[in-house]
Amino acid sequence: MNKKITLAIVLLIGSITFCNAQKYLKAIDQSTNLLNVEKHQDIKSYKWLNKPQNHTFSDKKLIIEAGENTDYFNNPETNKISSNAPFLYNEVEGDFVATVLIKPDLSSVWNACGVMVYFDSLNWIKFEFENSDATGNSIVSVVTKELSDDSNGAVLNKIDHVWLRVTRKEDVYSMFYSNDGVDYKMARLVSMKGHEKVYFGLEAQCPASAAKEHSFLYYSLEKRTIGNIRTGV
User: Fold this and answer.
1) Same structural domain, 10 and 69
2) What pTM does this model have?
3) Which residue from 139, 133, 137 is spatially nearest to 115, judged by alpha carbons?
4) Which residues of the chain have pLDDT under 50?
5) Is 187 part of any domain?
6) Contact indicator for 68, 206 with CB cutoff of 8 Å
7) Residue 152, CB half-sphere, CA atoms under 13 Å: how many?
8) What sign results for the dihedral spanned by CA atoms 176, 141, 37, 178?
9) Could you give the residue ranges of the DSSP H alpha helices within 85-135?
10) Phi, psi (rounded to 5 degrees) for 7
11) pLDDT score recorded for residue 168
């Protein structure tokens, strides 16, 4: 191959990589990051359901160690209820837009972290980046109305982190994912009626492995109403 062509390809790849990195960095707005505990005290009012043995707030992020065999899943086949995964939450009333950047330990099947909308033990939504037994590293959502479903979405085997966004507009919850924190794609939407106040927060799990650490690199929660439930705008 001509040396000039080779050099041009290298420069193009470098340019694309730089642009993607700049886009990624731009998406992390530390002024709105609730995990930046030096600037935001709101996160200190959050409570634990199943407090983990170890968790750390440092360098504007949260690391949660999910214990062995921890999960949220109301099994539709056996009716067994698993509800022992760490969940850091706060009560939220009305419409909202929540965004997280996560980097789970995906070394074992079903390992995951993400966000939950929790009403009670029989009604909740879980939206995560998970090592699925069916599709590998994937966007996974679980909607529970007494029993849980299990929906595997986009397969993301080439990245180790992802942005997730959950919006509420009245009784409709929309779920989105993004590789760069700028361009979001809808993964799912669902209606959950009869709950003005909900518990919303961060969840981490290791359903079939020893304890692992999952990282939350960014978390924001805005009290606002979106216009379009399918685009999140």
Assistant:
1) no
2) 0.88
3) 139
4) 4-22, 25
5) yes
6) yes
7) 12
8) negative
9) none
10) -65, -40
11) 98
